[in-house]
Write a structure and sequence with these properties.
Strand content: 5-15%
Distance between the termini: 54 Å
Number of helices: 23
Shape: globular
Length: 634
Amino acid sequence: MAKKEVLTDFWVYELLKEANIKLQPQGSNVKEINDALKSASKAGTGKVGFPEYCGVVKDFLLLVENKADITQHIKRNAKHIISTDIASIKNFAVNGALFYGKHLAEKTSYKKVIAFGVSGNEKRHRITPIFIDERGGYKELEDVETFLLFNKKNIDEYYTKNILKEQTPEEKTTEEILKDAKSLHEDLRNYGSIQDKDKPLVVSGILLALREMEHKGFSIESLTGDDTNTDGEKIYNAIEKNLQRANVSPQVKKDKLLSQFLVIKDTKAINEINPTLEKTPLKHYTEFLYEHIYKNIKYIHSAEDYLGRFYGEFMSYSGGDGQSLGIVLTPKHITELFCDLADLKPTDFILDPCCGTAGFLIAAMHDMLQKTNKPDIQRKIRKNQLHGLELQPYMFTIATTNMILRGDGKSNLEQEDFLKQNPAQLQEKACNVGMMNPPYSMGSKLNPNLYELNFTEHLLGSIAEDGKVIVIVPQSSMTGKTKEEQATKSNILKHHTLEGVITLNKNTFYGVGTNPCIAIFTAGISHDKDKVVKFINFENDGFEVQKHRGLVETVEAKDKKQHLLDVWFDRIESETKFCVKTTIEAEDEWLHAFYYFNDEIPKEADFEKTIGDYLTFEFNMIMQGRSYLFNDET
């Protein structure tokens, strides 16, 4: 075996290890598989033959065949089908993998075989999976960057989405939530004439009241449409009891929350029995929310911000995207990515000073809780380690409610204007991780304080020294389009360190029209002029816009995210078209596109095309009587 191929074997072994997949090299410890390989010679002699790696994950048989040279990845015939002649099987990774996969599908009892053709090295490579059924039929699948999608945790989802082309249970749940949001939005409009900003307050208030059912302090059956003790008063009283039970303090904070929920008992139309419904709209909403939302929030433990999703849907059905109310909700996959980039520990303290519906805090809480099984540490995380600020009263109410509903009994949220807070005072909270999605497009030359970069600098000053700050902002913030922003960039580097910037999918905030990026900083340590910064192009993140569904996660998303994290944490090298590592100046545009240069060696086909283009050009010029252009100068 050539030295280069041995290096490829080691690299593939590390990829499998990272994905937590245990395959055996040159054979199998499963007798049935090993017996089948005794007649698997690629030369077709019926003698022994082994792929590089082979093994079983759940009820799937996986095998890997690799080549060191990426030019030996796949060979196709004239009909563009994978060639099955002996030379192709021997010399090309995918062809060899398909051969072994078909052989094992025929000679073993495994009905689901996934064969991988791998070529190249960690910096420049291809990994192509092929699914083979028990009849020997096969399906070529999209290339992947890692084997993460094929471990015990993910392989069933991959099979369902990418091979069966069906929805997973999680996708169905999300789709049902979106449908429910539309339905409830229409009911709020048809039966109550509730204003847009009050709709989520009605929803979250009822959800808080439903929590009192566990303590016999509230029941849906009690909502009878009584004129004296209205349904709204019963729900409001249950909300007050639940805030008391959740130990929301100080009193002024509880009073702020309760003042927002007054809409539930003060809106006459929703407290009167509706002839069509034969009950009050409030009882109808309560029944609906109990069945469709409350059970999900209570019993499904994930980072999914269900209430936030509802809120976003309400706004989209209100004839806009919610920007008129200052709302740009951060998608779940971004809040989770922040946690991964921060490499959160159970001991971390988190601050989100523009917390919206508390999506970042919910994701951080979920992430940290998963990393410890000690009840006392979990209790500290919930009670003490999640801090947020929110300026708008109704959003503050939604965020606090959301945190309470997700099991944070105390909720360290404050209704405050972040930019008016003293950073030194915020530092006393000892938060060592800052996460933020600041208001967009609010700043101007007349009001430079509202530039996204100013929010970023303010957050950097609010985090403990050597802490991490991660923000998602428009790409224009990283270019420094005004003198004020250029000055802010320069000042940031004097006091803090830029670790990297990740350019995101332009549809991350689908429908909003913002091209976002993520910037990662270390707070309180000045940027060394020799510091190497990472600039990553993550526009191809595995999410795509689908008609009637908006931004949807494809099966490749987990794989692409793992590749991003591997590059970010220097576990692997990457081509410059994905990641550029360089020193920076404040005047630079802090984006991948600014620093990128194409260092990829041209392929033979590129050379042939260039020569062909030149010869065509020369022929055309000669035909036009311009042969003098090609005379050698003397």
